[in-house]
Structure formats: structure tokens, C-alpha cells
């Protein structure tokens, strides 16, 4: 079929045993537990490398505001000084006003240009940094985390949540700086023009501050809810689009519409709430501001009337006053984007605070050089114990040695611990006790590139990334040449179908004609593994969608191209066992039978029974 | 390197706006969504205009105070003036608040409606559409683009109007106060308008580019999350991060280009009017000195001019936001303009068929004989987006599954088996030929009816975020209850559901407990059989099961199959044996039909597929997906009554 729509994480059959109820599991909520102060620490760490540039940008804005705010001062000067001088035929002051005005206009425009460009650069760099951090961190977190934190939520962290920070940075911060600067500037101007009028203006900041504080508190809650609501919408959206076939076949459209409507409504409601909070704030702040203007004008007019204030000073003061309160709407807008960004940042911080449960080593060791001409390596499970975070122990103390170059088939019923064994060997998980050794080196001490040259796992889900077929195979070894890619595809029997695609190896798996069936995807996954050329190959149910010739091709490849590698093969079907040097039968996390296939088949144990059942199924 | 090639022009998601389609025309397409809230929106705009004009009256009151009571030393007049100021101020505050209050709920509603509309539409677009579009691109349309649109309706739309009116009224007021000064102020209008028009055009294309790049980035994020096991398994998270970094750097570049454009227009809009104000100040000062203008008038005039500064300056970013809204609209309608699956015909036309399909499992007696069962007649299929001269995926498929019979479909990897099964519930439409269910052409049935008659289990068993019980019961009609659930679970050997933490009420899927592949497959199978469908399509239903479970499922499934007409895609002899007969699909044709043992004897290709015996023409190694040789061979019609019509 098509499209990489592997839906739900497959955790392997260990999940067959019920996990205890997930009551109180923090992963059920949208916000992961965040250490106190992590949000502001995150913001600080994002801005820290830009400190100098932030300062420079602020300076630009400072100068720009100085240029802008020169206007009313020039008006006062013109009325109080230049006009009388002009009457006295002294044109100098008026010419000075004209020149100064032109200069301030040019400066405010030019500085605005410089500021917008400089701040955009800072913003974009912060976003680049944050996007990268989220992405890298999500990639570094263990498979265990990804199984519990749904993909939709992770996507919404790196899309809508980053988007709300973008809004804060691109509009909000500029607003904030402008607002603070004009408050400071204009207050200073007013105080300088007339200390009395200035004092009244400054006094009006008190009630404004209270308003802002109340708004922050109330809006914070609303934004938190809104961000959770949109994440729920995204999860539903992604799930539906990725499962569009069953949605259609089971006529879920109407039911989905209804379910989506509920989530969408919740978002609509919180969205409306947020806008209403803003309306409240605007009314309150405008009322305070306009009342203050009326008071100041009243007092100023009185004083002009009794001669203790110049008319020009009152005119300038009134012009400044109008401007003083102009930015309070913009302050509201800033608070808006700040609250929204804070809610998002908290979630991002919560995600970034997750420590990878499978950390990379601080001081990695190297694998010893290969002992023989065989490319395989020895694998040892040394007293390994493992239990899932939420469940009981899946592997109670487990010891196993696989000599280099041996092919081991692991069989057993669902829940016996086969997949856990594979995941421990691939280091998707770390054991809770004991060690897994590769040629005597603990897997935990290997750097990732070294580890992946050592161990590669092919699973049942064969996800294709967007890009060409060749790109998808090259994931196994990015530096591989086209020839090597084709050789790997040929070895696994995938060359024919790939050549038959419209553009052969260059066919985009997402675009026209790029429809690839489940079996073909598994072949591509194998070609990937072949190209990676690991010392140890793990196949976890990797042939489930292949037909028998496909499976044979895989077996042939293992006997030829992969000859001498250590291999661990987990399969429900026993056809794979035929090529194994050794068979392990697992039950309840223990190896209950261990021997050569022929020995076990001839015996009377569990494997013999299984094998007979399988023989019968072949007819 | 991870394959994260940015979109090429042929990509459906990167279409440029048809030439001549202006931003305004694009934005007008939003009207149907805005219509229901138009009363509120217009009232709000009107209120905003009034509020802004109230703001413009304030300088006039100041002028009156300066020239009248202040100059005349009239304390009562000063009090009156202050009172007017206060009243105007209160009115302005309430009006601005009222504007926001009026639109808060309606605009959230518009956004939500558009999102619901998109979701509804996407669910009904052909599956082929979803094959083409990365879901990240769809998601970014459903989230960021719609938020942009809501913001546009809330802010730029209103304020372009409000500021336009404010500027006009303000200019009017100034001209009335002193027409020479007014003309001086108007000087830069023409160059500013020209610059804005130029800016708009260039900004549009950059904005569109940025939005598409966000979509690409979303796609990479999504894939890297969904493919995490592969990335980890091959230790590729660094190269994946590099690819992501590359894309986000490109996005950064585009955003910076946007910022530079915005900075330029902003600088122009700031500098030119400010110069005009400076000129007016000098001219006004000269007039005051001459005594031809009162000081109060000059103060009021400049006060008005300065009050207009914000409306004028804001036009730059209002235009930018409108432009982004226009591209967001475009992106939204790119998806909305896609044709959904055509609805089925009127019910009357197929009343006979629907009566037959109405009660599933009621024994296929009425549909028996030659017309009954599931029948493919000269079916040919080519993907709708494939070039018309390419060979069809399926060609001249003639197949008849008799009522109550089950037929296994066997073929090499990639031979089109899954595609064939997708034709039955009309996930894809046949290119030519027809498929009938108990004699009724499936295109004559509504999709609703058709899909109620045919149940499918896909090779990828997708569960939804719902309880186990709901996931299974979604395969049945409304009447199904615990009894049906129980029966279906036991057929699929999915008894494990009862030992889950909350039994069958346990949440699974994206937001619930993750189950193993085998468990999901069994639940998907239970979902397919729970409604006791008349027709059953199973795509490799047992691939992830171990031998014991498989045997138990087979035993239970046999009883179900005895009562239904079934098409089963099979890779293994054990699955094939569930069916009464087998059809071999090869090179897009059905090349053989018979029982398993007959075909083992008679068809080398079949024997190859089932036992791994050497392939017919080739050494075994090259075996899968041979297409050319078999296409030459005439279709061997083993099927009795199904010759050409």
C-alpha cells in the first residue's frame, strides 16, 4: 500500500501481561512535571548567548524612541521660543526646529529599520535554538518515553508551542521594550517639564500595575487550558489522518466529527475566554488612563490660568500624556502573548526536563578490534534483570552467552520476554540490573555511532520516511554510494520491485506512483540493515509481512551477505529456525530450552511441539 | 542523510497563487465562514470606528479649553472641559472594551468552525489524496494557518477599516482647522500608498514560502517521532537532527527576508508622515507668529496629527498580517477545494440492493445463483494520479466469490493484493469494469451502505484512542452490545482484553495503553467480525500471531467464514487453508483459481509462493515481483461461469 502511517507504537509482546492501572501516571496529563523555575531558566538559557545582541537591539530601540519622542519637545520649543523669536525677526530658532524635526524623522525611520532587522535576527536565532533543542531532546529520549508520550503531543510541543513563543518574540518583546521605554521616557519628560504634572502621571502607574497583575493571574490559567485544549485537537487530528483507511472502512467519519467537535469546542471556549480577559483588561486600563488625562489637564489648566504654568508646557504635557497611555493596549497584547508563551514554555520545559533513561556515556569506550576474520561479535547477558517502569519484572535474572558469528532463533509464546531481550540488546532500554556486553564491553559504555556499527535491529513496523527509496535505504549507512545501495537491495530481493517503480530508486515514497506495500516496506527495511552491515543483527518479527519467497531471500542474505555476523532472530514462524545454529525457547522471561534445532526438534520438549504445529500448518 | 527533501514545485502543497488573484479576492473566500457572525463583526467594527473618533474629539476639547477658559481664566469652564474629557475618556474605554467583547466568542467560533470543516472534509477526501499529502502539511493548515486567520479577523480586518476611517476623519478635521496645514500633512500620501502596494506584492510570496516551510518542518517532526525506533535502531538521530536543522535554518532565512521587507515599509511609513508633521509645525509656527493662526489651533492641529501617527504607522504591519492571512486562506482552500468522494446515488435507485444488504448474516439465499456473492467483472485499476499511459496496477480482473464462500488471494509481494481489497469498500474507485455484491454494483450503493455490508481488517491494525470495547464495536451497527463484543473477542482469541487494567474499558490507541502488534491484530480482527458482516475482507489477518494463537484463531474464524462471503489476502499456507478456493494474482491479473492443492500441482508460481520451491522462469533468488513474464501469458480462466461477458 502506501504512506508511512505506522500508527501506534508497538511495544512488543511483553505488553500482553497487563500493566497496573496507570492511575497517577504523569504521562496521562499534557504537562509533564516541571521542576520549579525550569521555565524561566529555559528562557534565560535561550537568551543568554544573545546577551550582547539583545543589548544592542535594546539600544537601537532606545535611540529610536529618543528620536520619536523629540517631537512634542520641538512643538513646545516652537510655540514658546521660536514663535516669539520669529516675531522679533529672528528666524534662527524656527530653522533649528525644522532641521531638528527632519533629522528626528529620518533617525526614527532608519533606527526603526535597523531595530526590526536586528530583533528579527535575535528572535529567529532563539527559535532556531529552541526548535533544535526540542528536536534533539525528543530524539535522545528513550523508546520507553516515546511509548508513553504520544506523538501528537510531541508534535504539538514543537509546532504550536514554539509558535506561541515566536509570537512573543516577534511582536511581544518589541511591544514590551517599547512600552517600558516610552513609560520611562515620557515620565521623565513630564517630570522635567513640570514636576507636579509628572508626579500625577507617575502616580497613575499604581492602579495600572494592579490591573496588569490581576490580568496576568487570570489569563495565565486560561492560557494553560487553551494550550492543553489545542494539543488534544492536534492529537485527534493526527490520529485520524494517519488512520484514514480504517476510518473510512468502518464509517467513523460521523463519530469522529462528533468527537472532534467536543475537543474543538473546548478549544473554542478557552480561546473565547482568553479574548474576553483581554477585553476586561482593555476597559480597565483605558479607564485609568483617560481619568488620569482628565485630572492632569484640569490641574494644568488651573495653573496656566493662575499663571504658574506656561501654555506651551501644558500643550507639550498633554501631547506626551496621550502618548504615555497609548501603549497600554500594546502592553495588553504583550501580556497576551507572554501568557500564551509561558504556558507553552512550561510544557516545553517539562519535556526538556525529561532525562533520557538510556543516556549516552560520558566517557565512551571503543569496541576491541575484531578477534577473527569473522565480522560478528560475542554477546553476553550477564545477570540481566529487567522490569518495565510501570509493571512487574519481565526478565528475572537472565544469563546468556552468544558466541561471535552464531545465529540464534528465539521462540516462545506471547509475553515470554523475547522482544525485551531484543530491545535490551539493541539498547532501546537499559537493564535494571546486570550488564549486556558486546565483546566484553558494556553497551552503556559505547557511543551511539559505535553501538550502531555493532548492533542493528529490524522490527516488524517498517516505517518509510518521506524522500526517495534510495534515501530510505541509505539510512542504514548515509555515506553509502548508489552502487552499494543497489547491491543491498539486490541481495534482499528488493531490486526488482524498486526498478519497476516510476523513477526506480529515485521514486519519492510520498509522491505519485510511490505506493509501496507492507511486504515491500519490510524488504526496504532489510536492505537498510544490510547496508548498515552490523556485527550483530536483531530481527524482531521482521518477516511477518513477507511471503515465503521474500522470507527465503532474507534467509539467503543472512547465509551469504551477512555470513559470520552474530544474529538474534525472533519469529513466530519457525521457518527462520531452519537457518539458526541454536534455538532458545523462552517462557516467563527464562530460557527453558536451548540447543541445536535438530536436537530440539527430535526431542519431546516445547520446541518439538511448536515445530510440529508449524509443520502441520505448512500442510 | 535523512531524506527530507524540501518540496519541489510539483508538490501539491506548494502551489503559487494564480496570477491576478489578489489578496482581497482570496480573503473574500472567507465570507461564508464569517457570514454567521457578520452582525457582531460589523457592529464591532462600527464601535471601533466610533471609539477612534471619540479619541479624535479629545484634542478638540483641549483646543477649546486652551483658547477659551484657560486664556479667559474661567475656572468653571476649566471644570466643564475636564468633565467633557473624562466623559469622552470613559466612553472611549467602554467602546474599545465593547468591541473586543463583541467579537471574542464569534471569532473563536469562526476558527473552530473552519477547523471542524477542514477535519470533516479531510475525512471524506479520497484515500489517494492522503497518500499524496504529508499529514504535517495538513496539520499546519488546521492549526497555525487558522490561528492566523482568526487573528486577521480580530485585528487587521477591523483596524484597516478603523484606521482608514480615523485617518480620513482626522485629515478632515485638520483640513477644517487649517486647510494649508492640512495639505502639507497630506503631502506624503501618494508615495506611501505606492510603497505599500509594492510591499504587499513582495511580502505575499515570502509569506507563502515561510508557511510552506513550516509545513515541511512539521512533517519532519512528525516522521521523526513516528519513525523513532528506526532512527534509534540505526543511531541516526544526529543526521536526522542535522536535516531538521537545515530545514529550520532555511525557515530562519525566509523569516529574516520577511523581517527586512517589513522593516523597510515600516521605516517609510514612519519617516514620510513625520517629515510632513515637521513641515506643518514650521508653517504653523510662522502663521502663529503672523497672528493668522491661534496657538490653540496649532496645538489642536498637531495633537490631531500626532494622534494619527499610530493609525498610519500601523498600516505597514496590518498589511503584512493581511497578506499572511491571505496566504493562509489560500493554503486552507487548497485542501478544501479538493473534490471529496462523490456521494452515493439516491437511495431509491438501489432499494433492492439495500434491502438485500440491510440484514447481514441472514444467510445468502436471496443473493444466490450466478448473480450472488462478490464478483469482479473486467476490473481494471490505475491510481488516479498515475500517468494515463502507465500500465494499470490491476487489469482484467474477473473473479467470482459465491455467497458463503471464502476465497484466498495469493500473489507475490507488491502484486496488488492490498490494492484489490481496497476496491471493495471503495477506498479506491475502479478505473473500469465493475464490482458487484449480490448482484448490486457497488457504485450504485451509497458508501455508507456499502461499508456497512463489507467489513475489513487491514494489514496495519490501527486502533483509535478509545476503549478496547469501543474499538471493536465500531465494526458493528448501533444495536451491538456486550454479547456481540464477547463473541467477537472470542473469535479473534482476544481474551487478553479482559485482563487489561480496566478490562474492555481500557483506553488504547494514541492516548492509551500501547499493545503489541499481535494484540492489535487480534482486536482489528474482532472489529471486522463483530458486525457479522455479509462480506468480509481480511488483509493478511494473522501475520503477527504466533503459531498457537494462529491455530486457535483459525479454528474460530472457520465458523465465521462459513456464514460470510470472504476475500482473504494470504501469504501462508495456513491462512490459505481458511478459504475454500484460492486465486493467484500475478502481473495485475488473476492467473489461476482453484483449491490450494490443485494450484500447488498446477501452478509453478503458486508453488513457489507457498513453499519456496524454485520460481517458474527464474532462479529463486530473483523471485518476488516478477511482472513482465506473466503479463504475456493469457489469463487462465479456471473459473467456471466467469468468462467474458
UniProtKB/TrEMBL annotation, chain A:
<keyword id="KW-1003">Cell membrane</keyword>
<dbReference type="InterPro" id="IPR027417">
    <property type="entry name" value="P-loop_NTPase"/>
</dbReference>
<dbReference type="Pfam" id="PF00005">
    <property type="entry name" value="ABC_tran"/>
</dbReference>
<dbReference type="Pfam" id="PF00664">
    <property type="entry name" value="ABC_membrane"/>
</dbReference>
<dbReference type="GO" id="GO:0016887">
    <property type="term" value="F:ATP hydrolysis activity"/>
</dbReference>
<comment type="similarity">
    <text>Belongs to the ABC transporter superfamily. Lipid exporter (TC 3.A.1.106) family.</text>
</comment>
<feature type="transmembrane region" description="Helical">
    <location>
        <begin position="94"/>
        <end position="118"/>
    </location>
</feature>
<keyword id="KW-0812">Transmembrane</keyword>
<feature type="domain" description="ABC transmembrane type-1">
    <location>
        <begin position="55"/>
        <end position="340"/>
    </location>
</feature>
<keyword id="KW-1133">Transmembrane helix</keyword>
<feature type="transmembrane region" description="Helical">
    <location>
        <begin position="199"/>
        <end position="216"/>
    </location>
</feature>
<dbReference type="InterPro" id="IPR003439">
    <property type="entry name" value="ABC_transporter-like_ATP-bd"/>
</dbReference>
<dbReference type="GO" id="GO:0005886">
    <property type="term" value="C:plasma membrane"/>
</dbReference>
<keyword id="KW-0547">Nucleotide-binding</keyword>
<feature type="transmembrane region" description="Helical">
    <location>
        <begin position="283"/>
        <end position="302"/>
    </location>
</feature>
<dbReference type="GO" id="GO:0140359">
    <property type="term" value="F:ABC-type transporter activity"/>
</dbReference>
<dbReference type="GO" id="GO:0005524">
    <property type="term" value="F:ATP binding"/>
</dbReference>
<dbReference type="InterPro" id="IPR036640">
    <property type="entry name" value="ABC1_TM_sf"/>
</dbReference>
<dbReference type="InterPro" id="IPR011527">
    <property type="entry name" value="ABC1_TM_dom"/>
</dbReference>
<keyword id="KW-0813">Transport</keyword>
<dbReference type="InterPro" id="IPR039421">
    <property type="entry name" value="Type_1_exporter"/>
</dbReference>
<dbReference type="InterPro" id="IPR017871">
    <property type="entry name" value="ABC_transporter-like_CS"/>
</dbReference>
Automatic annotation (TrEMBL), chain B:
<dbReference type="GO" id="GO:0015421">
    <property type="term" value="F:ABC-type oligopeptide transporter activity"/>
</dbReference>
<dbReference type="InterPro" id="IPR003593">
    <property type="entry name" value="AAA+_ATPase"/>
</dbReference>
<dbReference type="InterPro" id="IPR017871">
    <property type="entry name" value="ABC_transporter-like_CS"/>
</dbReference>
<keyword id="KW-0472">Membrane</keyword>
<protein>
    <submittedName>
        <fullName>ABC transporter</fullName>
    </submittedName>
</protein>
<dbReference type="GO" id="GO:0005524">
    <property type="term" value="F:ATP binding"/>
</dbReference>
<feature type="transmembrane region" description="Helical">
    <location>
        <begin position="41"/>
        <end position="66"/>
    </location>
</feature>
<feature type="region of interest" description="Disordered">
    <location>
        <begin position="610"/>
        <end position="645"/>
    </location>
</feature>
<feature type="region of interest" description="Disordered">
    <location>
        <begin position="343"/>
        <end position="369"/>
    </location>
</feature>
<dbReference type="GO" id="GO:0016887">
    <property type="term" value="F:ATP hydrolysis activity"/>
</dbReference>
<dbReference type="Pfam" id="PF00664">
    <property type="entry name" value="ABC_membrane"/>
</dbReference>
<feature type="domain" description="ABC transmembrane type-1">
    <location>
        <begin position="42"/>
        <end position="324"/>
    </location>
</feature>
<keyword id="KW-1133">Transmembrane helix</keyword>
<feature type="transmembrane region" description="Helical">
    <location>
        <begin position="78"/>
        <end position="98"/>
    </location>
</feature>
<feature type="compositionally biased region" description="Low complexity">
    <location>
        <begin position="344"/>
        <end position="357"/>
    </location>
</feature>
<dbReference type="InterPro" id="IPR011527">
    <property type="entry name" value="ABC1_TM_dom"/>
</dbReference>
<keyword id="KW-1003">Cell membrane</keyword>
<feature type="compositionally biased region" description="Gly residues">
    <location>
        <begin position="358"/>
        <end position="369"/>
    </location>
</feature>
<keyword id="KW-0547">Nucleotide-binding</keyword>
<dbReference type="InterPro" id="IPR003439">
    <property type="entry name" value="ABC_transporter-like_ATP-bd"/>
</dbReference>
<feature type="domain" description="ABC transporter">
    <location>
        <begin position="374"/>
        <end position="612"/>
    </location>
</feature>
<feature type="transmembrane region" description="Helical">
    <location>
        <begin position="261"/>
        <end position="286"/>
    </location>
</feature>
Amino acid at each position: 500500500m502506501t504512506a508511512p502511517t505506522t500508527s501506534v507504537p508497538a511495544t512488543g509482546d511483553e505488553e500482553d501481561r497487563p500493566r497496573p492501572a496507570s492511575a497517577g501516571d504523569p504521562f496521562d496529563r499534557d504537562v509533564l512535571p516541571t521542576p520549579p523555575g525550569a521555565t524561566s531558566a529555559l528562557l534565560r538559557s535561550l537568551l543568554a548567548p544573545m546577551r550582547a545582541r539583545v543589548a544592542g537591539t535594546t539600544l537601537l530601540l532606545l535611540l529610536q524612541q529618543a528620536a520619536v519622542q523629540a517631537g512634542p519637545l520641538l512643538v513646545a520649543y516652537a510655540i514658546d521660543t521660536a514663535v516669539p523669536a520669529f516675531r522679533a525677526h529672528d528666524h534662527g530658532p524656527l530653522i533649528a526646529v525644522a532641521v531638528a524635526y527632519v533629522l528626528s524623522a529620518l533617525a526614527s525611520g532608519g533606527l526603526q529599520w535597523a531595530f526590526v532587522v536586528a530583533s528579527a535576527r535575535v528572535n529567529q536565532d532563539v527559535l532556531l535554538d529552541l526548535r533544535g533543542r526540542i528536536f534533539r531532546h525528543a530524539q535522545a529520549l528513550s523508546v520507553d518515553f516515546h511509548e508513553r508520550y504520544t506523538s501528537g503531543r510531541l508534535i504539538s510541543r514543537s509546532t504550536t508551542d514554539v509558535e506561541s513563543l515566536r509570537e512573543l518574540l516577534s511582536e511581544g518583546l518589541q511591544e514590551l521594550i517599547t512600552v517600558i521605554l516610552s513609560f520611562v521616557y515620557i515620565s521623565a519628560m513630564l517630570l522635567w517639564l513640570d514636576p507636579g504634572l509628572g508626579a500625577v502621571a507617575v502616580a497613575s502607574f499604581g492602579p495600572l500595575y494592579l490591573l496588569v497583575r490581576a490580568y496576568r493571574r487570570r489569563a495565565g490559567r486560561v492560557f494553560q487550558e487553551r494550550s492543553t485544549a489545542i494539543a488534544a485537537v492536534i492529537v485527534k487530528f493526527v490520529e485520524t489522518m494517519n488512520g484514514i483507511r480504517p476510518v473510512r472502512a468502518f464509517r467513523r467519519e460521523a463519530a469522529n466529527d462528533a468527537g472532534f467537535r467536543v475537543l474543538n469546542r473546548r478549544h473554542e471556549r478557552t480561546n473565547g475566554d482568553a479574548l474576553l480577559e483581554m477585553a476586561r483588561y482593555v476597559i480597565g486600563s483605558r479607564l485609568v488612563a483617560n481619568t488620569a488625562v482628565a485630572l492632569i489637564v484640569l490641574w494644568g489648566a488651573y495653573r496656566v490660568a493662575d499663571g504658574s504654568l506656561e501654555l506651551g508646557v501644558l500643550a507639550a504635557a498633554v501631547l506626551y500624556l496621550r502618548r504615555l497611555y497609548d501603549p497600554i493596549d500594546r502592553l495588553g497584547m504583550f501580556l497576551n502573548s507572554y501568557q500564551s508563551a509561558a504556558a507553552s514554555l512550561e510544557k516545553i520545559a517539562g519535556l526538556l526536563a525529561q532525562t533520557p533513561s538510556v543516556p549516552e556515556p560520558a566517557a565512551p569506550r571503543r569496541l576491541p578490534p575484531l578477534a577473527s576474520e569473522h565480522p560478528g561479535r560475542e554477546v553476553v547477558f550477564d545477570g540481566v534483570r529487567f522490569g518495565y517502569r510501570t509493571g512487574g519484572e519481565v526478565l528475572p535474572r537472565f544469563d546468556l552467552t552468544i558466541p561471535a558469528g552464531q545465529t540464534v532463533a528465539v521462540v516462545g509464546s506471547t509475553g515470554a520476554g523475547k522482544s525485551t531481550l531484543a530491545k535490551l540488546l539493541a539498547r532501546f532500554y537499559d537493564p535494571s540490573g546486570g550488564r549486556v556486553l558486546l565483546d566484553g564491553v558494556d553497551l552503556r559504555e559505547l557511543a551511539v555511532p559505535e553501538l550502531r556499527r555493532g548492533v542493528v535491529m529490524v522490527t516488524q513496523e517498517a516505517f518509510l520516511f518521506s524522500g526517495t527509496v534510495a534515501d530510505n535505504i541509505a539510512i542504514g549507512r548515509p555515506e553509502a554510494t548508489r552502487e552499494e545501495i543497489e547491491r543491498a537491495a539486490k541481495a534482499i530481493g528488493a531490486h526488482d520491485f524498486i526498478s519497476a517503480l516510476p523513477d526506480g530508486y529515485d521514486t519519492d515514497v510520498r509522491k505519485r506512483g510511490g505506493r509501496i506495500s507492507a511486504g515491500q516496506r519490510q524488504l526496504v527495511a532489510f536492505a537498510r540493515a544490510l547496508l548498515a552491515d552490523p556485527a550483530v543483527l536483531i530481527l524482531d518479527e521482521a518477516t511477518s509481512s513477507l511471503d515465503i519467497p521474500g522470507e527465503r531471500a532474507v534467509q539467503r542474505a543472512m547465509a551469504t551477505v551477512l555470513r559470520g555476523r552474530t544474529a538474534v532472530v525472533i519469529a513466530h514462524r519457525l521457518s527462520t529456525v531452519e537457518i539458526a545454529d541454536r534455538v532458545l525457547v523462552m517462557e516467563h522471561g527464562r530460557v527453558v530450552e536451548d540447543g541445536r534445532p535438530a536436537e530440539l526438534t527430535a526431542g519431546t520438549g516445547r520446541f518439538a511441539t511448536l515445530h510440529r504445529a508449524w509443520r502441520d500448518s505448512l500442510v | 542523510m535523512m531524506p527530507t527533501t524540501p518540496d519541489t514545485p510539483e508538490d501539491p502543497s506548494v502551489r503559487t497563487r494564480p496570477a491576478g488573484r489578489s489578496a482581497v479576492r482570496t480573503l473574500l473566500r472567507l465570507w461564508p465562514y464569517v457570514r454567521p457572525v457578520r452582525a457582531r463583526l460589523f457592529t464591532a467594527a462600527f464601535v471601533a470606528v466610533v471609539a477612534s473618533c471619540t479619541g479624535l474629539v479629545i484634542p478638540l476639547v483641549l483646543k477649546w479649553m486652551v483658547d477659551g477658559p484657560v486664556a479667559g481664566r474661567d475656572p468653571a469652564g476649566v471644570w466643564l472641559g475636564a468633565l467633557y474629557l473624562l466623559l469622552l475618556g470613559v466612553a472611549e474605554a467602554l467602546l474599545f472594551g465593547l468591541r473586543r467583547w463583541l467579537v471574542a466568542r464569534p471569532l473563536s467560533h469562526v476558527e473552530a468552525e473552519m477547523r471542524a470543516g477542514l477535519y470533516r472534509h479531510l475525512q471524506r477526501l479520497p484515500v489517494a489524496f492522503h497518500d499524496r499529502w504529508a499529514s504535517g502539511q495538513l496539520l499546519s493548515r488546521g492549526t497555525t494557518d487558522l490561528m492566523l486567520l482568526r487573528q486577521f479577523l480580530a485585528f487587521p480586518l477591523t483596524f484597516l477599516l478603523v484606521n482608514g476611517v480615523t485617518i480620513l476623519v482626522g485629515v478632515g478635521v485638520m483640513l477644517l482647522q487649517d486647510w494649508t496645514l492640512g495639505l502639507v500633512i497630506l503631502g506624503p500620501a501618494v508615495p506611501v500608498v505606492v510603497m505599500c502596494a509594492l510591499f504587499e506584492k513582495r511580502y505575499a510570496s515570502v509569506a507563502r514560502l515561510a508557511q510552506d516551510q513550516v509545513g515541511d518542518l512539521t512533517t519532519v517532526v512528525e516522521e521523526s517521532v513516528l519513525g523513532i525506533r528506526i532512527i534509534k535502531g540505526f543511531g541516526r538521530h544526529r543526521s536526522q537532527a542535522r536535516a531538521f536543522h537545515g530545514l529550520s535554518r532555511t525557515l530562519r532565512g525566509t523569516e529574516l527576508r520577511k523581517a527586512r521587507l517589513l522593516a523597510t515599509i515600516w521605516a517609510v511609513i514612519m519617516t514620510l508622515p513625520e517629515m510632513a508633521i515637521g513641515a506643518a509645525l514650521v508653517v504653523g509656527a510662522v502663521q502663529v507668529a503672523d497672528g493668522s493662526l491661534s496657538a490653540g489651533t496649532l496645538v489642536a492641529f498637531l495633537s490631531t496629527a500626532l494622534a494619527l501617527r499610530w493609525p498610519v504607522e500601523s498600516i505597514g504591519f496590518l498589511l503584512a498580517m493581511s497578506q499572511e492571512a491571505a496566504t493562509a486562506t489560500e493554503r486552507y482552500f487548497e485542501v478544501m477545494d479538493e473534490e471529496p468522494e462523490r456521494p452515493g446515488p439516491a437511495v431509491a435507485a438501489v432499494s433492492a440492493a439495500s434491502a438485500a444488504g440491510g440484514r447481514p448474516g441472514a444467510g445468502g439465499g436471496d443473493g444466490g445463483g450466478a448473480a450472488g456473492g462478490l464478483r469482479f467483472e473486467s476490473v481494471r485499476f490505475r491510481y488516479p494520479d498515475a500517468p494515463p499511459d502507465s500500465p494499470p496496477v490491476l487489469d482484467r480482473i474477473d473473479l467470482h466469490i459465491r455467497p458463503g464462500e471464502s476465497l484466498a488471494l495469493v500473489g507475490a509481494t507488491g502484486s496488488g493484493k492490498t490494492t484489490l481489497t481496497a476496491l471493495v469498500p471503495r477506498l479506491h474507485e475502479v478505473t473500469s469494469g465493475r464490482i458487484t455484491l449480490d448482484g448490486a454494483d457497488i457504485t450504485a450503493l451509497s458508501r455508507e451502505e456499502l461499508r456497512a455490508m463489507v467489513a475489513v481488517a487491514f494489514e496495519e491494525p490501527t486502533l483509535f484512542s478509545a476503549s478496547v470495547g469501543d474499538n471493536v464495536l465500531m465494526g458493528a451497527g448501533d444495536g451491538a452490545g456486550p454479547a456481540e463484543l464477547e463473541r467477537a473477542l472470542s473469535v479473534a482469541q482476544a481474551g487478553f482484553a479482559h485482563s487489561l487494567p480496566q478490562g474492555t474499558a481500557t483506553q488504547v490507541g494514541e492516548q492509551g495503553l500501547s499493545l503489541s502488534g499481535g494484540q492489535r491484530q487480534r482486536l482489528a480482527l474482532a472489529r471486522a467480525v463483530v458486525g457479522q458482516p455479509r462480506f468480509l475482507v481480511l488483509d493478511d489477518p494473522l501475520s503477527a500471531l504466533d503459531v498457537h494463537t494462529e491455530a486457535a484463531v483459525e479454528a474460530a474464524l472457520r465458523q465465521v467464514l462459513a456464514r460470510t462471503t470472504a476475500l482473504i489476502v494470504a501469504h501462508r499456507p495456513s491462512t490459505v487453508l481458511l478459504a475454500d478456493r484460492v486465486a493467484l494474482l500475478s502481473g495485475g491479473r488473476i492467473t489461476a483459481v482453484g483449491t490450494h492443492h490443485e494450484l500447488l500441482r498446477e501452478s509453478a508460481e503458486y508453488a513457489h509462493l507457498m513453499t519456496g520451491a524454485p520460481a517458474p522462469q527464474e532462479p529463486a533468488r530473483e523471485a518476488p515481483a516478477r511482472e513482465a513474464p506473466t503479463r504475456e501469458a493469457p489469463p487462465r480462466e479456471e473459473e467456471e461461469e466467469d468468462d467474458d461477458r
